[in-house]
Design goal:
alpha/beta; 7-stranded mixed beta sheet; 13 helices
Length: 427
Amino acid sequence: MSDLHARHRKVLPDWLALYYEDPLEITHGEGRHVWDAEGNKYLDFFGGILTTMTAHALPEVTKAVSEQAGRINHSSTLYLNRPMVDLAERIAHVSGIPDARVFFTTSGTEANDTALLLATTHRRSNTVLAMRNSYHGRSFSAVGITGNRGWSPTSLSPLQTLYVHGGVRGRGPFAALGDAEFIEACVEDLKDLLGHTRAPAALIAEPIQGVGGFTSPPDGLYAAFREVLNAHGILWIADEVQTGWGRTGEHFWGWQAHGRSGPPDIVTFAKGIGNGMSIGGVIARSEIMNCLDANSISTFGGTQVTMAAGLANLSYLLEHDLQGNARRVGGLLIERLRAVAAQDPGVREVRGRGLMIGVELTRPGTDQADPDRAAAVLEAARADGLLIGKGGGHDTSALRIAPPLSLTVAEAEEGAAILEGALRSTQ
């Protein structure tokens, strides 16, 4: 055990998870690569849990942060803040939500907390619909709507949460159905659920479930849900903390794969917009955002230095069409991994969109999760210079692949080759 690891264990919580038997200290990065304290270089296919969205040490973001830090870092939301207004205007414009208002937080957890506050206040109900296998953060209220046992340390909650089918396409009671029949069955389940309860405040859903192993429903499920929700006045909250900003390639927001019935009432975001800086936020129609009847501020949400980073990062992403790059390079990477999976009886499925790819592992000849192999693949990939993530929910284990959106074709091929070797060495 390294000295730093020993110090970590002595002073930080036991439940603060670390990857790898010999945990890694990352000291610096550039582009799609990072280096550890021993000088080893890695191709980064996880980006700080989908947070380094464009590239490590992106010059445009580094310059914006440095210049802003030389003027002022922070003043709180009690004062006018030009970078915050600038970024809010840009986000409102790309949100797809009419008359949008934007509130900045420091994380996706806090963004989802705020969305829940807005929805329950607006609707005068503390009942919330959430998806099975979901994850929405680590705060008390966010844990209360998380449908993933591995990330839910308590059943206590300020909310009454009811869980809906549909977030996982390939498992559960409707898995054998075709896409259209799957959506119909999930909608009927939602209708039946609403017949047994007072009208909830909102449905919160990740378009692609992140921690749950990059699972998703067929396109159009949430549009079909929206028709039912609208009939009851129930709001739709899209948790875009991991799917936003073009990561899925085909769309700028994950909800757009379900946009037939219009945009969500509320969108939450975080992670990639700051490219490593601490930015989260909520976008909502004005009548929802303005429903609070007491004072509220955010001490650290929307600080000048983080807003400068977000502006530079969003500009770079749009100007360099990183959404298009995610679609093109991600499509190649998915097909390459599916070819590898076809030769591996322990790979149940390669799924995802753009540069958000899940590789589900099972024990060969069964449908049972293989978390031990997932951990072994992580170790083997690291040994050969590749960092990936892992996840999963009820009896599932998946590798999570989410590189920066500027990934090149050559780097995708390199990463796929390393992952292929890691899978072969752990069969």
